[in-house]
Amino acid sequence: VQVVESGGGLVQPGGSLTLSCTSPGFPVRPYAMNWYRQAPGKERELVASITSIRGTTNYADSVKGRFTISRDNGKNTVYLQMNSLNAEDTGVYYCRARNTNEYWGQGIKVTVSS
Fold first, then answer.
1. Cβ–Cβ < 8 Å for 112, 37
2. Cβ atoms of 2 and 62 closer than 8 Å
3. Which tens digits make up the pLDDT trace of 48-104?
4. Which of 41, 65, 79, 83 sits a CA distance of 20 to 30 A from 18?
5. Contact (CB, 8 A) for 9 and 17
């Protein structure tokens, strides 16, 4: 089972970026999906979650109103739309698929800098 993130990169403060998470070869539909991030020198933190059936979402206080997690089961993809980015959003972002087991992606780097 493989989880793959894409869409990271360098963005200016105030800018936007959309991360994607997919899993080639297996459906993400049955899984709750999470986005985590790890800033330099800090522990990994949960950023956003979306449940498997109802699609209920939850966010860390630091990203509420700026980030949106969504899923398109037809495209087998989960997204993290990030707006109004600032330097504190810099880090490596990880996607996790969770059911009875859990699977992590290798992470993708997001750098917010002018």
1. no
2. no
3. 999 998 999 999 999 999 999 999 989 999 999 999 999 999 999 999 999 999 999
4. 41
5. yes
